[in-house]
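Ticket #4471: complex job returned nothing on first submit. Input attached below:
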Amino acid sequence: MPLSPALRDQILAAVDAGFDEQIAYTRKLVSFASQRGEEFAIQDFIARDLAARGMKIDRFDMDEAALTAHEGGAPFSAQHSRAPIVVGIHHPKAETGRSLILQHHLDVVPVGPRDMWEHDPYGGEIEGDWMFGRGAGDMKAGAAANVFALQALRRIGLQPAATVYLQSVVEEESTGNGALQTFLRGYTAEAALIPEPMDEQLTRANVGVLWFEVEVRGFPTHVREMGAGTNAIDAAQRVIGALREIEARWNAEAGDHPEVAGIDHPINMNIGLIEGGDWGSSVPAWCRFQVRISIYAGQKAQDKYAEIRAHIEDFSRRDRFLNQNPPVLRQNGFNAEGYVLPEGSEAEAVLGAAHQAAFGAALTSGFSGAYLDARVYALYARIPVLNYGPKSRAVHGFDEAVSLSSVRQVTKAMALFIADWCGTESV
Amino acid sequence: MPLSPALRDQILAAVDAGFDEQIAYTRKLVSFASQRGEEFAIQDFIARDLAARGMKIDRFDMDEAALTAHEGGAPFSAQHSRAPIVVGIHHPKAETGRSLILQHHLDVVPVGPRDMWEHDPYGGEIEGDWMFGRGAGDMKAGAAANVFALQALRRIGLQPAATVYLQSVVEEESTGNGALQTFLRGYTAEAALIPEPMDEQLTRANVGVLWFEVEVRGFPTHVREMGAGTNAIDAAQRVIGALREIEARWNAEAGDHPEVAGIDHPINMNIGLIEGGDWGSSVPAWCRFQVRISIYAGQKAQDKYAEIRAHIEDFSRRDRFLNQNPPVLRQNGFNAEGYVLPEGSEAEAVLGAAHQAAFGAALTSGFSGAYLDARVYALYARIPVLNYGPKSRAVHGFDEAVSLSSVRQVTKAMALFIADWCGTESV
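Support reply: We reran it on our side without changes. The output follows.
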């Protein structure tokens, strides 16, 4: 049932009234260096904060056995975070509305070479409309919006009239195991909202993502004999070439996948890390590299990984060096399938109305070429999942930034959505 | 003047008599982990040992300013060894013969992945005719041969009747600055002998060697946008491709260099080390790799490096990404020119006779596609330099080994050479 114009205006004003505080809170989140494995302090911060705001707190570890037994779970590597998952729980006085999950992740990707940043990566510096910092866009502004959308209701004496789980996870950037763990813990609801930096659009579909490592080894010799051709760095490059054939083949199949209609090059393969060799004048004996490749929604992660393995095996049989030294592939992260959000859900309609009220424009939807924790809700919880958030710049890049005016409007839309979806009751 | 048959037989027998001790000494040298920067202990060991054998010891540091001011000096990188150079000095009672430098290096290249060795890299294990270990061939067996060729003369109450410098250096594997420092210190002689593992041949000519590092940087983005093409690992691969063009061009010029007649692919370029990127799902912002490439004897190192730089600049101008993010090249090691040993020297004739006596076969000569410290003596001291040593296997590789029977014969040839070149006097 649509919000009354009076309540709507009250909520919009309440977001404005709290916005300075929300900016300070976002900046605080940005100040935590929360790269993979470092998220303990920021998860404790948010757990204490949500408790102070009246939520019950469920803090738990990721369960390797349960996660890796699940078809959407990713293998644990040595780098896997051990930080806890935090769920803040709101129980209403009377459960009259529709329950909701608000999710965010607080892990961030590495900063990269510091001298390529103009701004302090953990400074949360503001210049004009933009707040800079690693994770400012992806997705600490969204995390703060989760907190302050609820806070806006409290500011006017209201709270959701339904159970709300505010789920703060980690491992979104490398495995998606954090979000999956909340599902395995038993959390579900009638809808989920995740304010990833989506340029104020709703995500209609996204890709699945596979991560794996490739290692090539071979017996080196003095460089004066390298004509023997056993250079592992060179051989790794040939394997990368073979993987690029897979990427090209999969992009050529785009026509079979209506959710990517109009998207140029929907499947991207990235060699994100490489290392090999020990010495300038020794022919390198080893080379390892990290691969991230996307797959279409609806495709099974294990089928596609098997296709990759088969292609590399076939390629290696025809390579004089690799035939003797077959590359070793190891999954070491994402084993994730994509999803499509069917049109016409009640949740989408409610968000559409909220967005219209906050922005004065219709909600549009788009495709995401990145991994999204939303897949857990779409594929396993099987509930409508609204991946929707603010404008950002240089996500994963240098001088990553988020638009504060966009955050403000998105927070308004989120607060209106919560009030409408869950209903409200007095605090 | 040729040695008398009686003296010759005495010397040959003396090498045999000391050979068990020589093997133990070689094994002791192999037991030192003397990778770049780690050579302090082994240099102290040999300084003490040469002193105990009656030599005077000059131990001195490499002089960065003097080395880098010399045309054959290599730049100091952060990895440059600070270990001292050791020269053991023998002064005869009467200087009646020809003076001689015996040189070796005690630095070794990295071991690489330990699990690719069957033998302990620092164990000096013996199996049949072979002693295994990093540096066993390159060139701790040679170092021991320097010591025990002199020791064989002492065993029969003789010593060289001329000044002999036994020069124990480091940095042979990455800059050649150790050998150059002995020259800058003022050491020279009427000939030099360096028992590198040359398969019982005399080196007639070798290549020069350049080392440099290439760094590519670029502004990364989320992988979902990587069509923008700013992947630094991919860009580095294109630069490697451009460098391979240089390698092909230089090999095509082999006909202009008679010293490589009959040598297939005399110029080798090796990418010995690569590292890049921070995260699987971030488009990598940086990639660095280490290049080693050879040049023909007679070519100036700086001219050839300038040719490489110009080619990469030209290539980069035509590359959309590299045009905006030009690769940075930095010399970080060898800046060394090759040499040709002219036929017909007196030193070669004396070694030829010694080899014939030890092996019962004529001395042959060959080409070396590797850097050799011998270039310092050929190019700067301008003295005959005999690079000549035992058979080895897998130099710079796994399970590097040296043939003990070959070491024995080579040591005999060396002892005969010393006795003939320097003359002998009683101890």
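Residues 232-252 of chain B form the longest helix (21 residues). Closing as resolved unless it happens again.
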